[in-house]
Amino acid sequence: MEEQIKTIDEKGAADVVAVLAETAQLVAMTPLTGGVSANTYMLETSQADGASVRWVLREHGASHSGHSAKTEFALLKALHQQGFRVPEPLLCDVSHRLSAYDFIVMSYIEGGSNIPVESLDHCIAAMAEELWNIHCLPVEVLPNLPPRLNPVPEVFDYLPIGSEWSQLHARLRTLKDTGYQGRPCLLHGDYWPQNLLWQYGQIGGILDWEDAAIGDPLSDVAQASVELRYLFGPEGMQKFITAYSAHAAVDPQRLALWQVYVAAAAQHFMSDWGLEKSRENHMRRVALESIRNASAILHLDQ
Q1: Using CA atoms, how far apart are residues 158 and 267, in angstroms rounded to an integer?
Q2: What is the pLDDT of residue 35?
Q3: Is a pLDDT exceeding 70 seen at residue 36?
Q4: pLDDT at residue 1 above 70?
Q5: Where do you find CATH 3.90.1200.10 in the chain?
Q6: What b-and-e string marks burial along 30-40, b requiring 16 or more CB atoms within 10 Å of the CB?
Q7: pLDDT band with cut points at 50, 70 and 90 for residue 2
Q8: Distance from C-alpha of 221 to C-alpha of 191, rounded to nearest angstrom
Q9: 10-107: what CATH class?
Q10: Surface-to-core class of residue 50, CB atoms within 10 Å of its CB (0-12 exposed, 13-18 middle, 19+ buried)
Q11: Where in the chain is the domain with CATH 3.30.200.20?
Q12: Does domain 117-299 have CATH number 3.90.1200.10?
């Protein structure tokens, strides 16, 4: 009988702490919730001088579908060196000696991910500016990342089916030259409030780069705008698009194409995300409405 795949335990975490700081000791290992494809833990340590230092250990779990641990580590290292507010990567372990999964250890960033309604305009403006900064980073300093240049033909794998959607299917099949023709840039790939940490009204940390790619910046804008619509309605979506437009031109047709892709993929996969039923129902309604709205924009070009 095969041994069951095991996540890292406290003994393994203590060994990790000893590798990072020989005289440090593990005080506590606490699971961090919220992710779907990774097992994440906070490691609280006591250093030789008595200081308490926290690190984050992130395993690429059984449902992981993003980059390898080595690629994620290299990307975080490059971003940290470029001054981006990302966790500092400290260790990458692919030996499977302490865990059945590859894992990385990184610095812990203080902050919260909730956006108060009274601070919505300020936070959305900050999100848009930070995303634009990410898109401006020279890709030459980055590790090799997959391309994300064209939502077609993959979008057909995710589109809802039925008579309501037949016109959209037909419209998308008429589109030509849908590949991105501009300067490819770094994409976060999952840019939304839960992957940001706020400190005193400013972005203090940008997390979860496992879906990063090189390609069309409007794929990130579409992703963030749909995510903000789940939380703050169509007004939140439009506020973000307007805020990003202050930094870079936004082609409404191309943005709509990416919004169809993002929302279609979301409604296709969200039953796998472990959401509460009421939350899933809400997000599914919003995703389908986002497809309808984006579809109307695409049809304006006919």
Answers
A1: 8
A2: 64
A3: no
A4: no
A5: 117-299
A6: eeeeebebbbb
A7: very low
A8: 8
A9: alpha beta
A10: exposed
A11: 10-107
A12: yes
